[in-house]
Amino acid sequence: MKNIKKLIAMLLCVMMLVSVVACNTAKTDDDAAADDGIVDITYAQWGNDLETENCQAVADAFFAENGKIRVTVEQINQDDYATVLNARAASGELPDTCIMGEQTTIAWALNGMLLDVSDMYADAPAKPLECITFTYDGHDVCYGAANEMGLLYYNRDMFDAAGVDYPPTNPEEAYTWDEFIEVAKQLTLDKNGKTPNDAGFDAENITQYGVVINTRDFEWDALAQSNGGGISVDKKTCTFGSAETIEAAQAIADLTFKEHVQPVLDSSNSESVDGNICAGNVAMTIDGHWAIGVALNASDINYGIGVLPKFKTPVTFATGGPNVAFATTEHPEEAMTWLAWYAKEENNWDNLIATGIWMPTLESYYTDAALTEKWLSEPGYASVKDDAMAVFPAYYSYQSAPAWCYNANYAPMVEVINNAMAAVWSGDVSAEEAITAIAPEVEQLFNEGM
Fold first, then answer.
1. Degrees (nearest 5) of the Cα angle 397, 46, 252?
2. Measured in Å, how far apart are the chain's first and last C-alpha atoms?
3. Whole-number Å distance between alpha carbons of 411 and 430
4. Distances (CA, A) of 187 to 164, 169, 190, 420
5. Which helix (H) or strand (E) holds 292?
6. How high does pLDDT run on average in the chain?
7. For labelling alongside 120, which of 22, 97, 130, 228 has CA 20 to 30 A away?
8. CA–CA separation, 122 vs 430, rounded Å?
9. Where are the domains of the chain?
10. CA 404, CA 407: separation in Å to the nearest integer?
11. Per DSSP, what are the bridge partners of residue 135?
12. Cβ distance 119 to 100 under 8 Å?
């Protein structure tokens, strides 16, 4: 273990020790259990109000079924999630269970902060998909609570008005990058209704943009992987500093400053469909599947879904924060009972899967036509069932696990990346300048985290 990993280990171990002492002095088993024998445990998550409400409904159903374990769902802002958990570890106030932030999961498990969940799926028909399995040193550490893939969302009305065919739903027919640019140009309008293809187009007064690319690290990394670059292509060696990564990153930035089909990217328009598709001023964007249930179904936008554009090969990202139980919980048996129950599709179906927030974690829902039909006939997919039936069964095999699934240094690595790439997205420096400058540090962190 290299120095940086040792520092992480020391910090987390100190946190765990402090937490154990604090918990043991704060309450006893007798205090924790009510007179009626009910054990109360907590579950933290980062969803918006709707997702939190639906999650609590699932927890309430669990309590109604078992009558002995009551789960309270705690909502924590996603941007502050890791910071809040670290602070609560230091103060001895960690929740019993949570959906873990993907970026730090391997580091926490590596340092003994998480209970062993290797038997969680002992009675399930199959393990979750490989793309949402967190592994370290050849061993499974934990599994994503849901499978979420990256999708190309689009405004059907804008496509119809421009007379442009809807985006492909077959990964093998995904837009090439040049095709993607041309479609985006046809969907970009200035105040006079002109496109970038028209003489007299006013790039300073655009009223409708053709696209917004989400620049969260794991999302643009999938596009870089499509070009043969990204943080890692083979999950063994770092390819972040490659020409392929630089080319993909510059192509994304060029959508703004060269092609004039994308606004300058910042957190207000590049981190979810809320700031673009739902706002009604963008024709296409890339975001995770969850946007169907947490944003689009609550909007009046006539939307569709397709597959991501490609550089060389079709790739989409995979994500799904894993459900974990902390080693500091006073109720390990109850915590694991809750997580094992929660992990089963039938138990989170009505509130999370049927609503379009979560995708199933088992491969059978993508390969068994009857199960796919059962899933996508639910109300959450009513407006995009045909698209979903075409995309999901084919696209799941193109999902690529971000490096957080196997590298303990993902969090410090992407902090370096995000800080440098902000200047690329704003047009202040080229992708080559930014990536070349930080590539050695990223590679070192990657290698030390393996």
1. 55
2. 9
3. 24
4. 8, 19, 10, 30
5. helix 291-294
6. 90
7. 22
8. 50
9. 3-146+320-384, 148-318+409-448
10. 5
11. 140
12. no
**Who has greater pLDDT, 242 or 139?**
242
Q: Show Cβ contacts of residue 207 under 8 Å, excluding neighbours closer than 6 positions.
A: 189, 190, 191, 281
How many residues would you count in the chain?
Answer: 450
Is residue 215 classed exposed, middle or buried when 0-12, 13-18 and 19+ CB atoms within 10 A define those classes?
A: buried
Q: Is 321 exposed, middle or buried (0-12, 13-18, 19+ CB in 10 A)?
A: buried
pTM of the model: 0.88
Instruction: Round to whole Å and give the CA distance between 369 and 437.
Output: 49
Q: Is the pLDDT of residue 51 over 90?
A: no
Reported as a single tens digit per residue, the pLDDT across 161-213 is 999 999 999 999 999 999 999 999 999 999 999 999 999 999 999 999 999 99
What is 3-146+320-384's CATH superfamily? Answer: Periplasmic binding protein-like II (3.40.190.10)
**CA proximity to 273, closest of 146, 150, 153:** 153
Q: Do 3-146+320-384 and 148-318+409-448 share a fold?
A: yes
- CA distances for 330 relative to 17, 31, 90, 94, 311, angstroms: 14, 11, 16, 11, 50
Angle between helices 431-448 and 410-425 (to 10 degrees): 180
- Which residue shows structure tokens 């927890």? 59
- How would you class 6 by CB atoms within 10 Å of its CB: exposed for 0-12, middle for 13-18, buried for 19 or more? exposed
Residue 352 vs residues 51, 305, 345, 358, 370: alpha-carbon distances, Å: 8, 19, 9, 5, 20
Q: What is the 3-state secondary structure (H, E, C) of 177-237?
A: HHHHHHHHHHCCEECCCCCCCCCCCCCCCEEEEEEECCCCHHHHHHHHHHCCCCCCCCCCC
Helix, strand, coil abundance in the chain, percent, nearest 5: 45, 15, 35
Which residues have a Cβ under 8 Å from the Cβ of 251 and sit 6 or more positions away? Answer: 177, 311
Q: What CATH class is the domain 148-318+409-448?
A: alpha beta
Distance CA 257, CA 346 (A): 48
C-alpha–C-alpha distance, residues 127 and 120, integer Å: 9
> How confident is residue 21, by pLDDT bands cut at 50, 70 and 90?
very low
